[in-house]
Amino acid sequence: MTIATLTDLRQKRIGNQPEAVAKPRHVAIIMDGNGRWARARGLPRARGHHAGADNLRRVLRACSDRGIEFVTLFAFSTENWRRPRREVRLIMDLLEIVIDRELEELVAEGVQIRHIGRLDGLAPYLQDKIRLAIHRTQHNQSLIVNLAFNYGGRDEITQAIRQIIHDRIPADAIDENLIRSYLFTQEQPDPDLIIRTSGELRVSNFLIWQGAYAEFYVTDTFWPDFDEAELQLALDSYARRKRRYGQTDEQCVTDSRNPSLRQNGNRHQVARANGQRDAQSTQNRRVRG
Ligand code: FPP
User: Fold this and answer.
1) pLDDT in tens, 159-193
2) CA 116 to ligand 1 center in whole angstroms
3) Which of 202, 224, 228, 276 is most buried when burial is the number of CB atoms within 10 A of its CB?
4) How far is the CA of 82 from the centre of ligand 1 (A)?
């Protein structure tokens, strides 16, 4: 297939707003490729991070427009401390700039900011800034945004285990629901879709508990270029997936206990399941009658 045909196909899909089949409630994004975006333009890495920060607004708006309820953004990992000090400092400062610049609009747009990760590992000025954003947006409901900043999945699980022991929870009371309640994300639904930009095929210690059954979508596009059309491609791809949760293909279509039929409002699958049941009962009636 030529590039032109591929582009046509892509634009057709984007332009025609595909029907909402299965819509993820929770989308998590590994925002990667700021450095490569800058290098491709002969710019310093800092410019890539600034461009990445500028991109947050349009992607969050696009998510909100599509009725996505939760977005988790991986902005700084527990491993990112290993980067050069200047770059770490830059990303910290950038978060402060983003909060200062965007907070009023986030409040007005009904976006609720939450933080996942180790707040206490950050400089006091940044902790205060994040707490302010959380406080000012706490009653908002239109979109919940988890800012994963100084976040690591293994660290999250380690913290949870420590706290469970600290709370003297007896061993036989520990189950998956209990562990979930000790994670940073607590009662939130698990991510349905994890998007990674800039082509790397790694999980990078992101939501390793919560993402156990997430669908993955990787694009070669660098984060600063990941726009509304790119988001739609990811959502289209998600809509075509069949989430099996360990079951067989046949069970997925017919078993209403399948969480993908219940949680995701996958109307196509439900319709298909109902259609099959209807066809089956018609068939049975014919045989009987
Ligand atoms: C990955 O690109 C990006 C980061 C580790 C920093 C994330 C920051 C942003 C997306 C900007 C938004 C910022 C805040 C503070 C909310 P990379 O540097 O790993 O790119 P590369 O792999 O091409 O070098």
Assistant:
1) 999 999 999 999 999 999 999 999 999 999 999 99
2) 17
3) 224
4) 14
pLDDT tens figures, 168-177: 999 999 999 9
Q: Please indicate whether residue 49, judged by its CB atom, sits closer than 6 Å to ligand 1.
A: yes
Same domain, 39 and 142: yes
For residue 183, how far is its CA from the centre of ligand 1 (angstroms)? 24
Catalytic site positions: 32, 80
* Residues 146 and 209 occupy one common structural domain: yes
Ligand 1 binding pocket includes 224 (Cβ within 6 Å): no
Which residue intervals of 41-189 are DSSP H helices? 45-65, 85-108, 124-137, 153-166, 176-181
How much of the chain, in percent, has pLDDT values that exceed 90? 76
pTM over 0.70: yes
Residue 122: give the domain boundaries.
3-151+189-243
Best residue for ligand 1 mutational test, from 30, 31, 34, 94 (most atoms within 8 Å of Cβ):
34
Verify whether ligand 1 is closer than 6 Å to residue 211 (CB atom): no
Q: Using CA atoms, how far apart are residues 220 and 33, in angstroms rounded to an integer?
A: 9
Q: Give the distance, in angstroms, between the CA of residue 49 and the centroid of all CA atoms in the same chain.
A: 20
Q: How far is CA 151 from CA 122, 126, 135, 220, in A?
A: 11, 15, 20, 24
Kind of pairing, strands 143-151 and 215-218? unpaired
Distance 224 CA to ligand 1 centre (A): 9
Do 104 and 174 reside in the same domain of the chain?
Answer: no
Contact 244, 269 (CB under 8 A): no
Ligand 1 in contact with 196 (CB < 6 A)? Answer: no
Task: Give the total number of structural domains in the chain.
Answer: 2
Q: What is the pLDDT of residues 218-272, one digit of tens each?
A: 999 999 999 999 999 999 999 999 887 888 777 776 554 555 444 443 333 333 3
Please state, for a pLDDT cut of 70, what percent of the chain lies above it: 80
CA nearest ligand 1 atom 14, residue: 95
